[in-house]
Amino acid sequence: MFRLDERLQADCFEIADLELSTLLLLDNRSLPWLILVPRKHKARELTDLDYEEQQELLSEINLITRVQQKLFTPDKINTAAIGNVVDQLHIHIIGRYKTDPVWPSPVWGNLQDEPYREGELQQRIQLLKHALRVN
């Protein structure tokens, strides 16, 4: 049975369930930071998914990357599955800008937490849901 890691639950907002993954928005307004979490019990690595699931995950990464590019026009998209802190398989898809607070350094350990304000959060969630055509 799949269960979202407690740390991801605490740090993120659920946006939508895609075919394989749950899409999350990290609670940091500094950058458009989305996370895909395949709903596979005990999956820690990409290789824990079968071939068809890997293909579906790649398709979802492509979808979310296109959404990031269309909505936020970043200079670069960082895509990573690191899992050193949260070992549940999850993919970060982060829009980066040459003007962002830590460019060109990695965001991990460098980007200050800046939680969304309530109205701003709801607007961001609705924007993403609309782009994905989900309720």
UniProtKB/TrEMBL annotation:
<dbReference type="InterPro" id="IPR011146">
    <property type="entry name" value="HIT-like"/>
</dbReference>
<dbReference type="InterPro" id="IPR026026">
    <property type="entry name" value="HIT_Hint"/>
</dbReference>
<dbReference type="InterPro" id="IPR036265">
    <property type="entry name" value="HIT-like_sf"/>
</dbReference>
<feature type="domain" description="HIT">
    <location>
        <begin position="34"/>
        <end position="103"/>
    </location>
</feature>
<dbReference type="Pfam" id="PF01230">
    <property type="entry name" value="HIT"/>
</dbReference>
<keyword id="KW-0456">Lyase</keyword>
<protein>
    <submittedName>
        <fullName>Pectate lyase</fullName>
    </submittedName>
</protein>
<dbReference type="GO" id="GO:0016829">
    <property type="term" value="F:lyase activity"/>
</dbReference>
